[in-house]
Amino acid sequence: MVYAEFVRSQYAHAKINNIDTSEARATPGVVAVFTGADVNDKVNPLPGASHIDGANNPKRTLLADGTVRFMGEAIAVVVAESEEIARDAAASVVVDYEALPIIVDLDEAAKDGATLVHDSLGTNVCFHQKITNGDVEAAFAKADKIVERRIVNQRVAALPIECRASLAEYRRGEGSLVVYSGTQFPHVMRTQITAILGLRENLVRVIAPEVGGGFGAKANVYPDEILVPWLAMKLGRPVRWLEERRENLATMAHGRDQIDYISAACAKDGTILGLKGRLLADLGAYLYFGTAEIPTLTTLMGTGPYLFTDLQYDLYGVFTNKVPTDAFRGAGRPEATYFQERMMDAISDDLGLDPAEVRKRNFIKKDQFPYKTPMGLNYDSGDYAQALDKAMEASGFKQLKAESAELRKQGKLRGVGFASYVEICAFGPSKIMGAGGFETAIARVEPSGKVTIYTGASAHGQGHETSFAQIAADVLEIDINDVTLLHGDTASAPYSNNGTGGSRSLALGGSALKLAMEDIREKTLKIGAHMLEVSFDDVELVEGTIQVKGAPGKSITFAAVAREAYNGVKIPDGMEPGLQFTRVFDPPNFTFPFGTHVAVVDVDMETGRVTLVKYLTVDDCGTVVNPALVNGQVQGGVAQGAAQALWEEIVYDPETGQLVTGSLGDYAAVRAGMLPMMENHRTVTVTPSNPLGVKGIGEAGTIGAVPTVANAVGDALRQLGIKHVDIPATPERVWKLIQQATNGKT
């Protein structure tokens, strides 16, 4: 095996005049050095995968093709006998750059005449999506109050505990390629490798082993991950590349990065009559797999849990000299909830109303479900007021507010905030999505009675091995330890076009499994009845035993039936031997989890430091298969959401485009000690969209937490007359606002 190391751009925008690789090539232990001139014309370009009509999709090559457009873009790759040799040789490559003007400010990049990221496009605007419903102008004309805010949703890093990794081996004799990759969707990775490298798909095998976190950023096809298998084929040796943390922060897709200009037309009682929004989404320099699509999820969920009917959104996807953005836990939906919930607090404040009552006044009511939104979505089920009421009661919200007022008299600043949300999950209906969104499960009972499950949903920390095994064990009434889940290997797992993401695994993959297990249960009972010489209607499955109803002494074990299924002797005439079923589940609709979160923060008036002292969640994810896994997902999501609200931010230098937060010494990643113990509650509103009734929970914590914590900080600062604070609410930002409010200092 040999090792790859990339030479990456030190400039955010520059023309490459020359690449001198002579010293690297001469280094002992270096196997090869490749630049774009060696690679790009021998493979197909990366897909931008944008389905938006009229979207500008700039060509993206595996290595820079004459011009670099963000700091960290790969220019060359060195392959050597060890990682150390590869790293040293890569450092010796000399690149002659000719610096070009840069643009990293989103507001400026969206303007006519701005510095261009791609000269060939003549604009930085990738796409403009305009959505109008109802009579917006009439709604604004009759408003008692118009509330306006500029709401920033800053760029953040996904920051999985394990960076990206890829290992490829080309077996020349059989013409096959095996790729180990830290990816969230191995089948899509396989499809793209074959398309870009021009291979036969049935000769490419992708294996996603235990992936150390993904959060959406690993649901992608990156140029370096495609280049590794190309190198293995070119050199005839296994090639491994392990990404380092600085490399990860500079090149893995970032999340969020929107500036939303929102106007709300309101009646004096807090009823929202109309909405207008000008949404700017920073796409970075190129389109990764979902870069252009993610912001459209913001407008798709642009009404949230509310009865907004008269609205207009203008969404602009804008290129800048930054690493591309793409999915990050919530993927477009947190941005929607964030501006909605900040606006609900702003409306309440400007009108002098109770923010809980304003929300209730505008909520979709329980008896209105299923509810069709102006965006064309069909919300499946919900009771938003119930979740809000439960959060208020469980948190002791009124008491918390009273305590806050008392602390203020003592010179302390405490804020209590909350936010309600609804999200779209279980991305799957193929005919709605325009692509195969189904999931497949293969369930096989072995002759010993043990059960093996194959799923296309590739886990990376969510606990599929437990929840899927629970489903199988419950249907067959067997020990959960008798069930094994296999996933992540395209040679055995059924094809999945969407992999793991969008909180879809259990709703789709779990539902397919339930259907397959019910088929196995029925066949098991038929064989058992035949072996017991009774009618099918006279037997039942109880704790792993097939027994005659009313005569439990007349029974046969599940394992004995499994053995006979493979013997094929004592089975009903006309029945096929074996005990294996494959089921595909393509749902009729998405699912829509919802909830309300509450947060309490203390603000140090001397330093501006914000401390999160209490956090409570009420989430509704439909049927709960495993409470511990649900709590774990919520808590992890809240950690990432609170981190965005208070600490984390990707920062680029506005003059040079250099990544300022390029290491964990500079990027303020959340740590356990920054968070309080969380209190998790639930309501249960099942969905009719799948046989399990589950809605999804993987992203709810993040979606709810960002506006909840931000609203808590806002509540604290409103006591000083401060109307708005952007996130992250860092000590410096908060301190400056306090100074301006108390003594006019800046």
Distance between the termini: 58 Å
Q: Largest sheet, described in full?
A: 7 strands, mixed
> What's the multimeric state?
single chain
Shape: globular
Class inferred from helices and paired strands: alpha+beta
The average pLDDT score comes to 96
Helical segment count: 20
Low-confidence stretches: none
- Indicate the radius of gyration in whole angstroms: 28 Å
Report the count of strand segments.
28
Helix content: 25-40%
Strand content: 25-35%
Report strand order across the widest sheet.
3-5-1-12-9-10-11
Describe what you observe in this structure.
The protein has 746 residues and is of the alpha+beta class. Helices cover 30% and strands 26% of the residues. It contains 20 helices and 28 strands. Strands 3-5-1-12-9-10-11 form a 7-stranded mixed sheet, with helices on both faces. It has a 5-stranded mixed sheet with strand order 7-15-14-13-8. A hairpin with a 4-residue loop joins strand 9 and strand 10 (176-181). Helix 9 (293-300) crosses helix 10 (333-351), helix 10 (333-351) packs parallel to helix 19 (700-718) and helix 18 packs across helix 19. The chain starts with a strand and ends with a helix. 53% of the residues are buried.
